[in-house]
Amino acid sequence: MMRTADALTVERLSAGYPGRPVIRDLVLPPLPGGAVTALVGPNAAGKSTLLKAFAGLVKAAGRVTFGDHDLLRLPLAARADLIGFMPQSLPQGVALSVLESVIAAFEASRPGALAGADAARRAITTLDRLGIADLALDTLDRLSGGQRQLVSLAQALVREPRLLLLDEPTSALDLRHQVTVMEAVRALAAEGRIVVVVLHDLNLAARWADRVVVLDHGRAVAVGTPAQALTSATLADVWGVAARITLGPNGVPHVVVEGALDAPPVPAAAPGVPPENSTAA
Ligand SMILES: Nc1ncnc2c1ncn2[C@@H]1O[C@H](COP(=O)(O)OP(=O)(O)OP(=O)(O)O)[C@@H](O)[C@H]1O
Predict the structure, then answer these.
(1) Is the CB of 52 under 6 A from ligand 1?
(2) Distant-in-sequence, close-in-space partners of 128: CB < 8 Å, separation ≥ 6
(3) Entry's SUPFAM superfamilies (predicted)?
(4) What's the helix, strand, coil split of the chain in %, to 5?
(5) Under CATH, what is the fold of the domain 7-260?
(6) How close is the Cα of 261 to the center of ligand 1, in Å?
(7) pTM
(8) What is the ipTM of this complex?
(9) Is the dihedral of CA 29, 227, 188, 126 positive or negative?
(10) Average pLDDT of the residues of the chain
(11) Where are the domains of the chain?
């Protein structure tokens, strides 16, 4: 039975690479179980580094607690038991079938937990949940970019982790698959998990996340509901764009980017060029 009271707390977290500090003294309000948190911010803000710090894949100092666990001091095997991490890209050159790769992802973290047939059943259920059971026997190397992304997500989900860290799970997906993935993300959170998802599409974040953390230069510059965190002022300060934000009837903000703040004005259409959709006389 999933414990729903667990929250992820981050206190004075610093993380980075040798000679390259990225996250500095980060403090976040507790991220509760059952909620989807979108992590947004410009390129190189430190979003992937933060997820990797939670997962134990980069050097980190400070304090991150998850329920009773002191995450940064937990041995990697114990962390792998709690956390499902979907990286930005799937490694190339792996000659496994989709199904074999998802079974392998399960067995890597829970060796011997299920007999072969049960592990296979679980892997197929996971593929089915993401609408890609028909890819089960395809070789990883022959998949499209979007299919690879869905398989990578299946590898993170198959262990049913309590903390799910997804790095841009929708960046290569068509509209229909974006919805499939975000619905799956919401369903996973509804089961009591904590989901932290890196997204570049702010409207996707606004539509699907309960809260948004805006990261810039390794610091959280806005945290709150989508409407609180995604303001014109934040988009100007952090992304350098002029944006109009409208609020839908359910309070969900919609972001329309009008241009770069330092860009020259867009020239008017040249005279004599018929507007689109007009029929030339
Ligand atoms: N392995 C590494 N070694 C050294 N520096 C790295 C390494 N990986 C990332 N960095 C640096 O850390 C900083 C943050 O990178 P990170 O990948 O966390 O950003 P991000 O917010 O996820 O960016 P993006 O939106 O472009 O994916 C960048 O300046 C990057 O160059």
Answers:
(1) no
(2) none
(3) P-loop containing nucleoside triphosphate hydrolases
(4) 35, 30, 35
(5) Rossmann fold (3.40.50)
(6) 24
(7) 0.88
(8) 0.98
(9) negative
(10) 88
(11) 7-260
